Amino acid sequence: MPSYAITGASKGIGREFVRQLAQSPSNTVLALVRDPESPGIKALAQSHSNIHIIKADTTDPQSILAAAEQASSILGGKLDVFIHNSNSVDLSTFSLPPSKVPFDVEATRKFYEEPLKTAVYGGAWATNAFLPLIEKGDLKKIAHITSSMAQPEVILGAGVDYAVAYSIAKAGLNVQVAKYAAELAPKGIKTVAICPGWVDTHEGPKPPQLVEATEVMLNQFRKIEPDLKGQITAEESVSQQLRVIDALDAARSGTTIRARFFEG
Ligand SMILES: NC(=O)c1ccc[n+]([C@@H]2O[C@H](COP(=O)([O-])OP(=O)(O)OC[C@H]3O[C@@H](n4cnc5c(N)ncnc54)[C@H](OP(=O)(O)O)[C@@H]3O)[C@@H](O)[C@H]2O)c1
Questions:
Q1: Which segments of 111-264 are extended strands (E)?
Q2: Is the dihedral angle over the CA atoms 184, 186, 189, 193 positive or is it negative?
Q3: Is residue 218 in a domain?
Q4: Ligand 1 mean position to 86 CA, how many Å?
Q5: How confident is the model at residue 258, as a pLDDT?
């Protein structure tokens, strides 16, 4: 009866993890969200008795510790798989290249902080809060969702000079995942950073700026993969990511794995 906990489960890839995992009645799935009233996840939980919604902000240590305590009482103190998926970016600086980092300490901190808070600080707080449960679990797996935007061959091959803070935060996350693997190997705990692919997680009609930005990215990514058609669905991405998690063993622990050949 495997158990899973997923952060950032209110929408997008996180909610799709919850949806697919809940299809097996023997799974227990904890959906960690900032707002438990979030309509998409609430509706999913109402139709699946094996989904439990827990309030958790990964950028707030007290919130994530309280979530782990609640998880522990639901699961009897043990968890099999922890998936750290939550992410946040500062859209006001997302399109800027590194030469636009301002000569101002506060403004520079703001430029980098938002994605670091979820990927690196939040990644550590969330992992550490759930570690005692994972240690007692049977599968002992921790997955962090990263991005190929952190990989130099994608940055250089596609010419992606924007998303500076996001890419650096995900690169930091990848290293942190490797550090956890080195630390936790003696306890039999395996960690992995997974690139989910270029996934369409936008809800509702797309504004013209988003359509235009997607087209620009498609043309950039085609420099690496000429046959690329466009974004994949969250359903396709998550089913491939779950295969990566199923196959995770000690030999692969600490690595960054692409769920698909091409990643966004
Ligand atoms: N989509 C892609 O093409 C793509 C490509 C590469 C990597 N990824 C990675 O895949 C993961 C999921 O992406 P997505 O496209 O599904 O993103 P998304 O639709 O923007 O969803 C992000 C999720 O993170 C949650 N979140 C944000 N800040 C949080 C916080 N402080 N505490 C807890 N939860 C928080 C959001 O919750 P709220 O509803 O509360 O805001 C939301 O559920 C991310 O790590 C992303 O970097 C995505």
A1: 141-145, 190-195, 199-200, 232-233, 256-258
A2: positive
A3: no
A4: 4
A5: 86
CATH for 126: 3.40.50.720
Domain-embedded: residue 213 = no
Pocket test for ligand 1, best of 10, 86, 221, 238 (most atoms within 8 A of CB): 86
Average pLDDT for 176-184: 98
Task: Provide the terminal-to-terminal Cα distance of the chain, rounded to the nearest Å.
Answer: 33
Q: What is the pLDDT of residues 52-86, one digit of tens each?
A: 999 999 999 999 999 999 999 999 999 999 999 99
Structural domain including 32 reads 3-204+232-258
Ligand 1 binding pocket (C-beta < 6 A) is: 7-8, 10-14, 34-35, 38, 57-59, 85-88, 118, 145, 147, 196, 198-199, 201, 264
Nearest to 7 by CA among 47, 50, 49, 41: 41
Does residue 263 sit within a domain? no
State the total domains in the chain. Answer: 1
Domain membership of residue 160 (yes or no) is yes
Whole-number percent of the chain with pLDDT over 90: 97
For the chain, give the mean pLDDT: 96
